[in-house]
Amino acid sequence: MRLFGIETEYGITRDDVDEVDPVVESMELVRAHLEASFERRWDYASEDPHEDARGFRVSGLQQDKEEDEFAEVDAHRPFSFHEMKSDLVLPNGARFYNDHTHPEYSSPECRTLRDLVAQDRAGERIVFRAAERRNRVLGGDHVRLYKNNTDFHGHSYGCHDNYLVSRGIPFSTLAAGLVPFLVSRQVIAGAGKVGTEAQESGHVPGLYQLSQRADFMETELGVDTMHDRPILNTRDEPHADRQKYRRLHLIIGDANMCEYATALKVGTTRLVLDLIGRGAAPDLILDQPVVAVKQVSRDPDLKVTVKLQNGRRLSALEIQQCYYESAQQTLAGTDEETDWLLKEWREVLHLLTQDRSQLVGKLDWVTKQWLLETFMREERIGWDDPWLASLDLEYHNVNPEQGLYLGLEAEGKGWRITTDEMIEEAIQNGPSDTRGGLRGLCVQRFADQIKSIQWEHIQFTGGLRLQTLNMGDLFTPSAVQRCAQLFQQASSPTDALTAWNNERDKQV
Asked: Which domains does the chain have, with CATH numbers?
């Protein structure tokens, strides 16, 4: 079942105060999206980060301790936990909320890469327009937002890509097939970064690397997301029928400005999951994945090799080539999107060795390196100049008048899979063939009758008792579209649910 989405945490700051409180600023930004007062509707009951996909439940996480510390610090604040989170579900089915110190936009579930990229770009505009409204209250262009993954002071925030996967595939099989791919995926999906960084030492200038997240990867597998960050996250929180599905939650990825990089990042990962499901993934096991992910990132010349458990050494490009060849042999001809991905994947791997300049505007790390090297030549400075970190940050600014990448895109130098019209449509509506679009439709039509809402269910008021739309197994396009049709035509959620349940009973 093909379904994926992206969660993006945005960097936020204000330039008119000496001490920025990111908790308050993130909350105020989310609230700025609202035209009415905030009402708590998000249902946290089915969120449980302690369940591990390896078959056990952890008693405690490092982030639990941090949350307790946050609670002590937040105790003086004149608002509750839920007010601070300010969880919103938008008319396009996305979730927009304060993830404590960062505003986060979680896209609705998507079935095609075109929809995914449009929804990801919709998130950029939604958070920027909220910042514009917030700045009107503040009386100046003070709040700034960055679609990146580091503040250059030892802190990282995430861009997580998620995939619906059959629970019939053992997690150990997923891990074996995915880890070498994820370690090497940064050659096509890295956002680029000036210097190195760690929580202990902060930012150290002096080199250019492929990925912003690689510095913060600390273990191969793990359920934590804020400490001991794993290459492959093992959280078992499916947001679907647990007996049938799991949600693969990847936290290693960078936030991409280039539409092409976003499409390739998610698309190639989807192909690799298809390979794993068919037992056709390359037989590659890295000797030290955490070491390897940093080695690959810190070698923009793409020459370094990493050691496999069998003693062989391969470069990241060679690992990617192995996955591409398996996908070409196994998946070619599956559908139009798969064939597009295979063609582009092959072309990118070729250009990375032959003519990288053709990837400017397509891959973020290549585009950023080109911009910075151009600047360095003009200013006669080196990679150790602290000026470059500020330029790195501005590459990710989501203000079209300030962001370096968005400026390139406005000049026609950024490859587009979307149009501005598609992005505006994605702001208004979710994909019509996924439950994300259905969720958004319910928000559009019956927001005042929604008691609680989650990824997999919506609980409505009205009538003698609460009624629930269960979407835990609602994934086929025809079923989603039929359910949406009923909610579009009905005068109330009760009428829609009655009609929907009657149809399902007849099918059984």
From this structure: 4-422 (3.30.590), 434-507 (no CATH)
Answer whether 0.85 is exceeded by the pTM. yes
Sheet strands (E) in 297-421: 305-307, 313-315
pLDDT at 62: 60
Which residue in this structure is represented by tokens 């995914």?
A: 116
**Which strands make up the sheet holding 103-106, listed edge to edge?**
88-89, 95-98, 103-106, 4-9, 159-166, 245-250
What one-character-per-residue DSSP string does 370-394 give?
HHHHHHHHHHT--TT-THHHHHHHH
Q: How far, in Å, CA of 442 to CA of 154, rounded?
A: 41
pLDDT at 51: 77
Angstrom distance (rounded) from CA 96 to CA 362: 27
Q: Over the stretch 50-70, which tens digit does the pLDDT of each residue have?
A: 776 777 677 666 655 555 555
Of residues 155, 58, 144, 91, the one with CA closest to residue 424: 91
The pairing of beta strand 56-57 with beta strand 51-52: antiparallel
Cβ-contact 108, 92 below 8 angstroms: yes
Q: Is 99 a catalytic residue?
A: yes
Q: Which is the catalytic residue, given 64, 99, 141, 495?
A: 99
The more confident residue out of 508 and 214 is: 214
Residue with tokens 């053709």: 358
Tens digit of each residue's pLDDT (9 = 90 or more) over 172-184: 999 999 999 999 9
Residues in Cβ contact with 16 at an 8 Å cutoff, skipping those fewer than 6 apart: 138, 140, 142
Other CB atoms closer than 10 Å to residue 468's CB: what's the count?
13
Residue 436 backbone phi and psi in degrees, to 5:
-60, -45
DSSP 275-302: HHHTT-S----BS-HHHHHHHHHT-TT-
